[in-house]
Amino acid sequence: MLELRHLETLTAIREGGSLVEAAERLHVTQSALSHQLRDLEDRLGLQLLNRRTRPLRFTTAGLRLLGLADEVLPRLRTAERELRRLAAGQTGRLHLAIECHSCFQWLMPALDVFRSQWPDVALDLSAGFSFAPIPALVRGDLDLVITSDPVPMDAVSYIPLFRYELVLAVARDSALAARRHLAPDDLADQTLITYPVERARLDIFTAFLDPAGVEPAAQRTAELTPMMAQLVASGRGVAALPNWALTEYLDQGLLKAVPLGAEGVWRTLYAAVRVEEQHAPYLQDFLAVARELCFRDLSGIRMPRGQGA
């Protein structure tokens, strides 16, 4: 009576908080998802969701099935990965570099999981190519690059991981903190804190300030996200960062995050790999682990366009 897709549906509803978000995660229409849920409830003769509450709440029966899903689905994914290793061999190399300093929050847990599942794959996270990683990828010095700035090249395939919103981190007592969203001119009298990378790779300039012909009053750099957050909290500037990278600082009440523009500035994070190696089983497995952990642990991210978003 119960099928794996039913457990996956209930898990997606819990993680998404709504039928709309769950449908996006499962790559189905909302009506198809609602029909599947009703069909399951009819089979069981039990109501699984209280649809009168916002957000949706699970009934006792629904919570019982979620408990089952939490037991079964991880074991199934582990078995699938083990079978792929058996079919494809267990050796290889995965040398990575990142272009986004804030990626460590989700990347390190993903690497830990991957290392336990592919113990014979040589794994390395390189800092030596941090500011010019794509040429190193093409040369073969690297095997995967995490980037939000894809440069079209015949030798490189860009695999979308997730979409995120670029927001402006401001001090809690800043006049900007009360704004619903910001215009480029609002940054004209601000000190902008950025990572120490070239201007052409900073989304705050390329996607927001440069099109409007606006310059900040000053610019300073900081190597690490926590350092940037502390500078912002102490009123020494503002910083444009991914929404998910600010979650812990927002929860602690250290600063505020304000959208850039009425529609927001949304970017996509990609995994860049060499075209001839994009289907390597261990590489595909790493991407699956990374996506799974991202959508489990990060707040405010969306599926890439064309994949349910």
From TrEMBL:
Domain HTH lysR-type: 2-59
Organism, scientific name: Isoalcanivorax pacificus W11-5
Family assignment from sequence similarity: Belongs to the LysR transcriptional regulatory family.
Full protein name: HTH-type transcriptional regulator MetR
Record keyword Transferase present: no
Listed GO MF terms: DNA-binding transcription factor activity; transcription cis-regulatory region binding
One of the record's GO cellular component terms: cytoplasm
InterPro entries for the chain: LysR_HTH_N, LysR_subst-bd, MetR_PBP2, WH-like_DNA-bd_sf, WH_DNA-bd_sf
